[in-house]
Amino acid sequence: MQQTLILLKPDAIQRRLIGSITARFEQKGLQLIGLKFVKADRALAEKHYAVHKGKPFYESLLEFLTSGPTVAMVWQGREAVQVCRNLMGLTDGAKAPPGTIRGDFALSVQNNLIHGSDSAENASLEISLWFKPEELLNWNIVDGTWVS
Ligand code: DGI
Fold it and tell me: What is d(CA 24, CA 88) in angstroms, rounded to the nearest whole number?
């Protein structure tokens, strides 16, 4: 079973899309094991986007991520990292195919609603940035054998 970090970024909250986006992960069959409402500070945003340090859009990306609350979630399931990336769609909302979250709800490159870890290794790093171990819940999902 794989775990991945999903963030609903400040534009998703401002646009009242928390429910519509979260529904897609539930409907796919993934299991939610961590959930919180967080206003990231600069230090957290810097760690989260460390890989982009030095790029022209870095400062604006940090400003965006710290501009308001985010919903941080950990989803678990078979191939959860790639499954979530597929549900999200391409980074640029204008290029993301219809049927994906960004394809259906986003037009911008930066304000693209959602973050999802891009590898299992990054997922475990990012989960540890946003969650304490005791904030992740191990619970028995009753239809698990039907879904995966
Ligand atoms: O994993 P993704 O979020 O799909 O994309 P990423 O890890 O390459 O980039 C992280 C975020 O940085 C992305 O969601 C939006 C922003 N970004 C990436 N490339 C550009 C960008 N923002 C601007 N303004 N211009 C870019 O070229």
Answer: 10
Token representation of residue 126: 């990012």
Q: Which of 73, 84, 115, 130 is catalytic?
A: 115
Contacts of 35 by beta carbon, 8 Å cutoff, 6+ apart = 71, 72, 73, 74
Could you give phi then psi for residue 89, rounded to 5 degrees?
Answer: 90, 175
**ipTM higher than the 0.90 cut:** yes
Measured at the CA of 29, the angle between CA 28 and CA 31, to 5 degrees, comes to 125
Looking at the chain, the whole-number percentage of residues with pLDDT higher than 90 is 97
Pick the residue whose CA is nearest to atom 2 on ligand 1: 91
